[in-house]
């Protein structure tokens, strides 16, 4: 199933400047693996050493935060969008 991944500005150097990448996946984990296969270095920026989503990275399937769904096992359907959103902190 083809899903669209929206890439934030901070990670576009990994995608040759593309702000969107289409991958074949049925879960968010598969989408991250597909991104890593075609754009090496992507997984290291999204996942920690234990394979969990980094604290400062938010992943959404359409408008749903995967932390409130099934995490990386969250299913994705053909045509859905995964958005990578870096956390914003201020002071």
Describe it:
- It is a single chain.
- The protein has 91 residues and is of the alpha+beta class.
- Helices cover 18% and strands 25% of the residues.
- Strands 2-1-5-3-4 form a five-stranded mixed β-sheet, with helices on one face.
- The model has no long low-confidence stretch (mean pLDDT 95).
Mean pLDDT: 95
In what order do the strands lie side by side in the largest sheet?
A: 2-1-5-3-4
**What structural category characterises the helix and strand content?**
alpha+beta
* Helicity range: 10-25%
How widely separated are the two ends?
41 Å
Main β sheet profile: 5 strands, mixed
Low-confidence stretches: none
Q: What is the approximate shape?
A: globular
What radius of gyration results from the CA coordinates? 12 Å
**Beta strand %:** 25-35%
Order of helices and strands: EEHHEEE
Count of individual helical segments: 2
Q: Which short descriptors sum up this protein?
A:
91 residues, 5 strands, globular, alpha+beta, 2 helices
Lay out the secondary structure.
Layout: E1 2-6, E2 20-24, H1 28-38, H2 42-46, E3 57-61, E4 64-65, E5 81-86
Parallel strand pairs: 1-5
Antiparallel strand pairs: 1-2, 3-4, 3-5
Write a compact overview of the structure shown:
It contains two helices and five strands, in the order E-E-H-H-E-E-E.
